[in-house]
Design a protein that fits this description.
It contains 32 helices and nine strands. By secondary structure, it is of the alpha/beta class. The strands form two sheets. A seven-stranded mixed β-sheet has the order 2-3-4-1-5-6-8, with helices on both faces. It has a two-stranded antiparallel sheet with strand order 7-9. Helix 26 crosses helix 27 and helix 31 packs across helix 32. The chain is elongated and about 105 Å long. The N terminus is likely disordered.
Length: 731
Amino acid sequence: MEAAVKWKIKEKSTATIALAGNPNSGKTTLFNAITGAHQHVGNYPGITVDRKEGTINLKDTTVKLIDLPGTYSLSAYSQEELVARNFLTDEKPDIVVDIVDATMLERHLYLAIQFIELGIPVVLALNMMDDVRKQNLTIDTEKLSQLLKCPVVETIARSGKGKKELLDTAVSHVKDENREPTPLEISYGTELDLILDDMTKIIQEYHFMTDRYPARWIALKYLENDSQIIRLGRLNNKISKKLEGIVDRTKQHCMKTMKVPPEAIIADYRYGLINSILKQNIVVQEKTRQERIDFTAKLDRVLVHRFGGPILMVAVLYAMFQITFSLGEVPMGWLESIFGWIASTATALIPEGMLQSLAVSGIIDGVGGVMGFVPLIAIMFLMISFLEDSGYMARVAYMLDRVLRIFGLHGYSAMPFIISGGIAGGCAVPGVMATRTLRSPKEKLATLLTAPFMPCGAKLPVFLLLIAAFFTEYKAQMMFSITLFAWVMALLVAKLVRTTVIKGESTPFIMELPPYRLPTLRGVFIHTWERTWQYIKKAGTVILAVSILLWAAMTFPGLPEEQTNQFEIERQAAFTTIQSPAEREQILTDINNLEGQTALRHSLAGKVGTLLEPFSQLAGFDWRTNIALVGGFAAKEVIVSTFGTAYSLGDVDPEDAGTLSSRIAADPTWNKFTALAMIVFVLLYAPCVVTVVTMAKESSWRWAIFATAFNTTLGFGMAVAIYQVGTKLFT
C-alpha cells in the first residue's frame, strides 16, 4: 500500500472510531449504549443521509465515535454505501469497529473482508453473543482473530455487555506503535490475478488516484464496475480508457468461458475465503438432548403466516392508534392549558397593539397549535421505535411484498412507505431517500412518487385537529381509516404510473429478516426522543418563522381608516342605545369579531384566500382555509399554526373561544364533509418543500414538479368529490 494512503500510527490523546456494519447488526444500538445522550445528529456534507456522532472520555483519551450508515458492502450501489466508503477513504478514522451479527458470520464477514482489503485498521465486534449461546453455539474468537489478523471482541449491544472491552481494545489498537495495517490481497484465480497485477502496475506508474486509494483496490473496483471510481477515473481520461479497455476484454472472456461477469467471480472468491476461515472449527455446535427449534422461526409461523400474518399486522396498526389516543389525551390537555395560560399572561402583560397581536396570535397561538400534539406524536414514535427495534418492521415489508407486486412495486417499497408514515408519524424526506434500496429504477421512481401520500408526522396535527373537532367519538377509527386510505391511494397511483409512464416488469424480492429481539428501554427512548425532538425543533424554527410571516400577511395592510371609523361608530351607538348590559356586551362582541374577520379578509393573505375561493368552494374550503393550505406547501404543520393565528385574529378573546378544534367546530362554514375533504386533500396534495427538493435529488426536477402538480390535482379532485357527494346525499 502506498505511503500516501496509510493510516497514521502515533501516540495520541484523541481517537476517532467509526462504527460500521450491516443493517440489523445492532450497530446503532451499540452506538446508543456507548454514547447515551452524548451524541448529536447532523447530515453528511452536501447530502441528507444522517450522520451520528458521539464523544466520550476513556481514561486519558477523548474518543469520537461516528455511526456510519448500515451497509452490506463497500460498493457504490446505494448512497449509504457510498457515504460509508467516502468517509473511510477521505476522513480516515483511526480505526473501524465492524459490528457483526455473530449468528450470521458468513454473511456479515463479507463487509469485514472488504475493510481489510482496503487496508483499514479493523476491530471486529461479534455482537448478539446471547443469541449465539441460545443456539448452543460457541465461537473461537481467538482463532478468528489470528486468521483475520485483527482484534475480535464479543458484545451484546442491547444490554451494553462488552462495550468497555471493545472500546479499550479499539483505543489500544490505535495507540499500538507496532501496528501497520496493510491491505489484504485475496487470490481471485490465476486469470483475474494476472489482470489485477497488470492494472495495478499501470495505476502505480501513473499515480492514478493512489493519493486516495490503494492501487490494487482501484483495479478491483474497475473490475467490479464501480460507478463512482470509474467516474472519478475519467477525470484522467487517458488512463481510465486504458483500464476500461482491459475490463471490457476481461468481461467478454469471463462471459464466454464461465458465463459470469468479473464482479460475480470476485464475490465468489471472497465468500470462498470466508468459508475457508469458518471451516477451521471457528463455530462449533454443542451437543444437546434434542433438536432446538429457533424462537424466531416459532414466532414467524404466527406473525408471518400467509393469512393470519396480515390480519395480525392490521390489528397491531389499529392498536397503535387506540393506545395513542387513550394515553395521549390527558397530557395533550395539559399542554393546551399551558399554552392557554401563556396566551392570557402575554395578553395581560403586553399592551394592546401590534406587539401583543404578534406575540399572542402569531407566535403563541401559531406554534402552540403545533406543539399541543407533541404527546400524541411522542407516544406514536415510541411504539414505532419498539416495532422497529424488535425486528417486526422487516416482517411487515416481507408480508407486503405479495400485495405490492400486484401494483408494480417491490417488497423494498414497503420500507419507504412505512418510513414516510405508512404507520402514521413518519417523514417523507427519509422515506424518499429510502427508495435507494430499490435496484430497479422504475420501481424506485414509482415508490418515490407515491411515498409522500402517507400520513407523515407533519400531517398528523392537521388530522388530529379535525378529528377532535368533528369525529371525537371515533378518534382511533378515523386515524386507522386515514392510514389505510393512504395505502390504497399510493397503490392505485403506483399501478397507474407503472402501466402508463413508468412501464416495466417487477424484480424479485430478497430480504434479510433479522431475528426477533426484545428492545431495550434505553434504545427505544433514544430513538423516540430523536424523532420527537426533530418535530419540536421544526415547530420552534421553521414553523415559528412561517407563522410570523403568515401573521404579517394576515395583519397587513390594516383596514382603511373609514372602515375602522365605521366600526367605532357602531360601538358608540351600542353604548348609547342599548340599555341591557348583557345585550350590550353581546353586540359589542359581535362588532369586534366582525371587525377582526373584515380586517383578516382585507389582509394580503385574505386577498389570496378570497381569490382562490371560487374554486376551493367546490371542496367546501373558504378563504381562511385557503390561507392555511397555501402555507402548507412550506410544511404541513403550518396549516395548524395558520388556523391558530387566523381564528385568534378573528376572536376578541382567544382564551374565551376555547381550543382551536372547538373554534373550527363552531364555525358555520365547516361540517363533517368539509373536514373529510380537508383530510383527503392534505393527505394527497403537494409534498412539503423539503420533500420536493429531496425528490429532485433522488430522481430529477421534472419528476419532482410532476409529483407536485399531479398530487395537488388528484387531492383536489378527491376533495371535491367527497364534499359534493356528502353534502348532497347526507345533508
